[in-house]
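I am going through a labmate's work and have reached the protein record below. What it holds is a sequence and that sequence's fold in token form. Please read both lines and tell me whether the tokens look consistent with the sequence. Do not assume that whoever made the record got everything right. Thanks in advance; the entry in question is below.
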Amino acid sequence: MLLLSHLSGAGGTISISYCSRRFLTSVLPVFLLLAASLNLAGQAASPGYRENSAQPSSSGANTSRTRTVTHAKPAVPNNGQPLTAHEKFNVALDYTLSPLEFGAAFAKAGITEVVSPSRRYGRSAGAFAEQFGAAYADEATGNMFRQFIYPTLFHQDPRYFRKGHGSMSSRLEYAFSRVFITPSDSGKTEFNWSVVLGSTSSRVISNFYYPPAARSAGITATDIGLSLLYQGIANSFQEFMPALNRRLSHRIRIGP
């Protein structure tokens, strides 16, 4: 359990743990937005950020330029080139700044208010905002650990490579197995240290800003297991999303 330290001052006491929690839940999102701006500004000049022109259309005209770095690809990479550290950072940043991440954080904050009293910061609108900030900090730190820091240290590819064929059960089994199995930068299959250690590190860090009642060893271990389960669910979405998009596009017709 985190020990609460205090600084004495003329106007009273200032809780260091409270300041740390406020920093993570308020300043971290601003820092990530600033990092995104700096990253986007430096992409054009970065030798590690590759762009390829899209294939010509049937009319002979080229479509817009597309990025090489994607989050989900077929099970076998086409170019055989490992991601640079800069590109792994791009993957983590893209996940973190995705609208889906903000939606996931909002949903997590709402669910926490209902089913997890030990994590609540209170019942007011301000307390819910703090709950949302904590949930988003979970997403942000998890992405940075899983998609950038540990993949760079262990030379692993942070992307999910789709199987793309076979029965639904076999593809679900494949998606969940990728939580523990991943390709290395050299193409070898190995244990997915990036996701396992990334989820663990993110949850341990969250003990600095979650309420004291949510910092026990049992709750921390349970949350790490749930985080790995969520990773399997996220992989499943990536596995089947292209097929779902195709079905929806066939059903939706846009008139002239």
